[in-house]
Write a structure and sequence with these properties.
22 helices, 377 residues, 75% helix, 0% strand, mainly alpha
Length: 377
């Protein structure tokens, strides 16, 4: 699809670049074969060129936060000339090329196209959300630490961690774009970094028992592959940091402190098996493009409905005269009693869906619909 898009825009000639035609691509797919490394290298180059052009048209390169990309381009000895750098005639081009390279190197050549299909966001929205996700996850240090394991840990282990990072960044990017945020990157990023840093020591204690076991399983998998324990924990908890964006938003809306807000958010997810649904959805691999797109959206809907349920429970607790930062049990149990019929209907539906063979896209759609009915009472 990416090659077709480039061809329609007059940017690519497959014959000139030695790339397979659509018929050959379908034949390779049937034989479970993909592009060769030289072919992928060509597409990486085209993806960066196109993204650079789009970034230059978007005006995002003028964002003050991206000044650090300009400064990093020059030798460290020149940092004292930061004012001169800011007025450099090629400031936008330098930032645009570095940002395009970063996005494609981390997310792959299809990152921008997939993000646009999933969110309907424009280049500026998606690229700025990427930067926020990348920085909030401390991805620069994580990537550097993974690179330092060359010839120490297996390359497959390094790819495993980098793949996890790319998936989590894509998830956060979509989350931000769908919230229709606007404004400069810095003011949107700094509060989130501060909040996630506050939560870092508490992730495993806050997660639902199911999510905690999954995180511990990822830690064990990474360490078995030769990743050092501390780095394995950081990589395994990337998904928790991603859901931390939901926790921070919930805390901001309710006025709750971060830790009790997180405990309520994750306990709600555990009570309604949303954690299990998300994990099952991540393991499903539809072959059709639109099915994959629908599944990614459903996975995001699971997070969204978990936040909605948490907010409803917190508001009901406040209406009963309860104070903020209460224990999750004190908030959830009375709220469930008030909605006994709808909760029973959801529990019955989940039991039927989970007990009737493996999970499918249709089942996930039904589960989301049932959860959304629960949010309506």
């Amino acid at each position: 699809r990416f090659m077709v898009m480039l061809e329609r825009a007059g940017r690519l000639d497959r014959a000139v670049e030695g790339l397979p035609e659509t018929a050959e691509m379908r034949a390779r797919e049937a034989e479970q074969q993909g592009l060769t490394r030289p072919e992928l290298a060509v597409l990486l180059a085209y993806a960066k060129i196109k993204l650079f052009d789009d970034l230059m048209e978007s005006g995002l390169t003028a964002d003050p936060y991206l000044q650090n990309m300009l400064e990093a381009y020059f030798p460290p000895a020149l940092t004292k000339f930061d004012k001169a750098m800011a007025g450099h005639r090629l400031r936008g081009e330098i930032i645009g090329s570095r940002l395009a390279n970063l996005i494609v190197d981390v997310g792959g050549p299809l990152f921008m196209m997939r993000a646009a299909e999933q969110t309907n966001g424009d280049v500026s929205d998606i690229a700025s959300a990427f930067v926020i996700a990348y920085e909030a996850l401390d991805a620069p240090n994580l990537r550097a630490d993974i690179a330092a394991l060359d010839n120490v840990a297996a390359a497959s282990a390094q790819y495993d961690v980098l793949g996890e990072l790319a998936r989590v960044i894509a998830r956060i990017t979509g989350w931000i774009v769908r919230r229709y945020e606007s404004g400069e990157i810095g003011p949107r990023l700094t509060p989130r970094i501060d909040a996630l840093t506050d939560l870092d020591k508490d992730w495993l204690n806050m997660l639902s028992s199911y999510d905690r076991k999954r995180a511990q399983s990822r830690i064990a998998r990474f360490t078995k592959q030769g990743i050092p324990q501390e780095l394995a924990e950081r990589a395994a908890l990337l998904r928790s940091r991603a859901s931390g964006f939901d926790v921070v938003a919930f805390a901001s809306e309710t006025g709750w402190d971060l830790k009790p807000a997180g405990e309520l958010f994750y306990d709600i997810g555990g009570r309604f098996k949303i954690d299990r649904l998300r994990n099952a959805a991540l393991r499903l691999t539809p072959k059709d493009h639109w099915d994959r797109l629908a599944l990614r959206r459903i996975t995001e809907d699971f997070y969204a409905v978990q936040g909605q349920l948490s907010l409803l429970a917190a508001r009901a607790h406040k209406e009963r005269g309860g104070k903020k930062n209460a224990t999750a049990k004190d908030v959830i149990d009375p709220w469930i009693k008030e909605r006994k019929a709808s909760v029973k209907a959801y529990d019955s539906a989940y039991t039927r869906l989970s007990g009737a063979g493996g999970w499918t896209l249709a089942k996930f759609a039904l589960a989301v619909a049932q959860l959304q009915e629960l949010t309506a009472g």
